Amino acid sequence: MPHPDSRPEHLQAAIQHIDHAVSTGSMAVGAAKGLLFSLMETLGVLVGDPALPDQLRDGYEGLLETTRELRSRLDSHNQQP
Fold first, then answer.
1. 54: phi > 0 → left, psi -120 to 50 → alpha, else beta; which?
2. What is the arithmetic mean of pLDDT over 23-43?
3. Left (φ > 0), alpha (ψ -120 to 50) or beta: where does 53 sit?
4. CA atoms 15, 21, 22, 27: torsion sign
5. Are 40 and 64 in contact (CB under 8 A)?
6. Where residue 3 falls among pLDDT bands split at 50, 70, 90?
7. Terminus of the chain with fewer CB atoms < 10 Å: N or C?
8. What is the radius of gyration, based on Cα positions, of the chain?
């Protein structure tokens, strides 16, 4: 079973916080990308846990997709002149 701090609502709050911090300029894009990488790794491990109930797996997979989308947005943000 996942660690209590890795519940979907906590991870979702972390993703939202990173997105907000970048959009308000209180966090550098590079730092946000590093944090998102760590979140993606954590979510990948959770999704890969064979003992994880399907309902939780679906939630973690959704968060992983959200994290990937934010990372992609940040990547394209860096490419703009």
1. alpha
2. 94
3. beta
4. negative
5. yes
6. low
7. C
8. 13
pLDDT tens digit sequence for 34-53: 999 999 999 999 999 999 88
Q: Choose among 79, 74, 64: nearest CA to 29.
A: 74
Length of the chain: 81
Q: Give the separation between CA 20 and CA 14, rounded to whole angstroms.
A: 10
d(CA 9, CA 27) in angstroms, rounded, equals 22
User: What are the DSSP calls for 39-53, one per residue?
Assistant: HHHHHHHHHT-TTS-
Question: How far, in Å, CA of 69 to CA of 43, rounded?
Answer: 14
